[in-house]
Design a protein that fits this description.
The protein contains ten helices and twelve strands. With 457 residues, the chain is α+β, with helices and mostly antiparallel strands. It folds into two domains: 208 residues, paralog of FGE (formylglycine-generating enzyme), CATH 3.90.1580; 203 residues, no CATH class. Helix 2 packs across helix 4. It is globular, with a radius of gyration of 27 Å.
Amino acid sequence: MDMKKFILLTAVITVLASCGSKDRGELVGVQGKKWHPEKPYGMQLIPGGAFIMGKADDDLAGVHDAPAKTATVRAFYMDETEITNSEYRQFVNWVRDSIVRMKLAVLADEVGKVPDDGGIGEYAFKDADTANMSVYEKYMFENYTGLGPTGYEGRKINHDVDLVFDTADYPDEYYTEVMDTMYLPIEESYNGQRTWDVKKFKFQYSYMDIREAARNRGVKRKNAIIKEEIEVYPDTTVWIRDFAYSYNEPMHNDYFWHDAYSNYPVVGVTWQQAKAFCEWRTINKNAYQKSKKGSAMVNRFRLPSEAEWEYAARGGLQAATYPWGGPYTKSDRGCFMANFKPVRGDYAADQALYTVEAKSYEPNDYNLYNMAGNVSEWVNASYDPSSYAYTSTINPSVNDRDNKRKIVRGGSWKDVAYFLQVSSRDYEYADSARSYIGFRTVQDYMGTQVTKNSNKK
């Protein structure tokens, strides 16, 4: 092709492109769908702003790990209550049911059963029949399915058919075989009852360590992806182990599963399990968004940073001792403002012996309940007594993967008033579970226009 023809062809393409464009040749930017922020269910919007973080008065305990400093945080959503047993059971049941469905699909594949065969065939992988696949699904199935260690990675399990838990209604012997593997062996059962083998309730997820990738620019993307597998069932034995020579068997037996405690905060959950819950909540919500074609994906749910937690706990009050202000733990009517251990160990003085329902006592000015007392809360931070000296003043966060001492905040039903102070810091090891530690989640707010610098005293 000579130069004249090339120039003419280029001119024709340019004219056609301009004629078919709606921007009339102007720089208008790439326009996406209009964004309408949606407040997540059960959460409150915490407006970004600056506050005095740390001890505003004398450090009576002499810990000296929270010197006062000005910090600024961006806007975010936070659960108005601690995560409850009912909410955490949704996570546990999702993991259990997903594992059961995968086992059913694998066995159906091994014995050659398909949906038309009934029985276990109804739970076969959704790609068992490739006739209804889209072009993309067929491409992915043919090129990527089975590349993992089990040979079943990437295959879609069937969520459209309800699972059967009543043994009298099991559809066939294959289904019975799978369900039998999910319970404890007969020899480990008593009183004629078999219970779930909760050690098999494991949640697998992966995430990118963005900070590590940012620090080491040459690192390959795949090397910055961290894979985790976490047992999700709470450790109910904490009610026994945390209190030697104390009768707490009813709490061990009933607290997590019984409906009487559904709205109480979940405990016996490690920092690692709390992180896994956040990942599941994100996956679960985005799966729903994906089913509503055209709906935007949501930001990740996560544990709050230490600064975010303290900022939210203060509820806009500067230099306050407690979420309600202070410096007293009783109201002007003589009622305790939180669930803790008052009056030299009289647990019942605040009308609660152990935990109380997550939506108890009066919320703070951000409408958050029990930011002091009830259960201490995991945050996404590692404990370093000197961290306030070197953290940034904007969105301060210290979370060292090698430091297994993770911050807990807010104090609990078994703590004295000092630990209820919004500036008090405590820690527990990431793999430890306690009868007095729970958590709540946060989600980043999209945009920066929601800010507030409170001048409340």
